[in-house]
Amino acid sequence: MSVLVNKDSKIIVQGFTGSEGSFHAEQMIDYGTNIVGGVTPGKGGTEHLGKPVFNTVSEAVEKAGADTSIIFVPPAFAADAIMEAADAGIKVIIAITEGIPVKDMIKASDYIKGKDCRLIGPNCPGVITPEEAKVGIMPGFVFKKGKVGIVSKSGTLTYEAADQVVKEGYGITTAIGIGGDPIIGTTTKDAVEMLVGDSETECVVMIGEIGGQLEAEAAKWYKENGSKKPVIGFIAGETAPAGRTMGHAGAIVGGSEDTAQAKKKILKDSGIHVVDSPAEIGKKVAEVLSK
């Protein structure tokens, strides 16, 4: 079993022929990801990177059987691309695009609620099930197959955590980068729930940051559901000044519960193993799994 993507996923790239889409699609194909084509309006019927190009997502679903999409469409058009994918019957939509206007995401988020799909992102590094499918922009060589799931708001900290886990002799089932924008499709709680429910995942690393309530919601779910699977938590942004956006648009301390200290306390009170530095993630995973 795997979460979200695997070797059988049929993946298309929206914004396939653009520079970002081309670069990362090539990397994904080299990794062995099952890319079945891409979408660039007006270029349907041509080939790119040895894969067919379609004018619309519905055409890609009909002709290539696509069930997963990764979006590299510019910010002004990315919300439309998300809604188009949902309309066409794509089950997993992974939006990499950074800088989508909040008002556009409010509309897209509301629009896809009634659809049978899951949105990851936007402004995220994507999802990887090591040695099966890399649907994102992460460096594939860092990830090795194993039994630790990763959920993270930060791209670079996802890679850092994976590297540490692998160096400790463990690997990754699936790593999910949920994105750092104020409005995202899949929350920390959603992702933790998926990984805790995955039969191959024995431990979950949850990387959060200041701002918002996502980590607190995940911790509350974890506490209430009495999971037997250990979760290791890290909150980035301990030294960030209050009231100022730091890096991610969603990382801004609004209330007292948004601070790193408050979040760490909530996590600890919920039975999550909290580390104070990202450098401790791998060691804590090894310690917990060797018990």
From TrEMBL:
InterPro entries: Cit_synth/succinyl-CoA_lig_AS (IPR017440), Citrt_syn/SCS-alpha_CS (IPR033847), CoA-bd (IPR003781), CoA_lig_alpha (IPR005810), NAD(P)-bd_dom_sf (IPR036291), SUCC_ACL_C (IPR005811), Succinyl-CoA_synth-like (IPR016102). CoA binds at T17, G18, S19, E20, K43, I96, T97, E98. Its EC number is 6.2.1.5. It catalyses: GTP + succinate + CoA = succinyl-CoA + GDP + phosphate; succinate + ATP + CoA = succinyl-CoA + ADP + phosphate. It is an enzyme of class 6 (ligase). The lineage of its organism: Bacteria, Pseudomonadati, Bacteroidota, Flavobacteriia, Flavobacteriales. This is Succinate--CoA ligase [ADP-forming] subunit alpha. It comes from Psychroflexus longus. Pathway: Carbohydrate metabolism; tricarboxylic acid cycle; succinate from succinyl-CoA (ligase route): step 1/1. Residues 4-100 form the CoA-binding domain. SUPFAM superfamilies: NAD(P)-binding Rossmann-fold domains (SSF51735), Succinyl-CoA synthetase domains (SSF52210).
